[in-house]
Structures are given as structure tokens and as C-alpha cells.
Amino acid sequence: MATVIFAVGMAIAGRAALMAMRDNLIRDSFAHSLIKYKIFADKAN
């Protein structure tokens, strides 16, 4: 019985990890395409 409970827990955890990875990849791809990197010179003089 413990093996069945462990297997169900691993299936749920694995699915959650895959969904988190998918969301992370989708959001990162949009973020990198929308962010522009600019370096401003220090105008303290």
C-alpha cells in the first residue's frame, strides 16, 4: 500500500514540476523579448 501512495505522490509532484517549468519557459521568453538593456552615462560633472 505504501508503494501505491508513493507512486501517486510522485505522479502529482512530477506533473506540478512540469507545469512550473512550462510556465517559467513561456514567461521568460516573453520577458527577454520585451526588456531592452540600456546603459546610461553618469552625468555628475
TrEMBL record:
This is Uncharacterized protein. It comes from Salmonella enterica subsp. enterica serovar Uganda str. R8-3404.
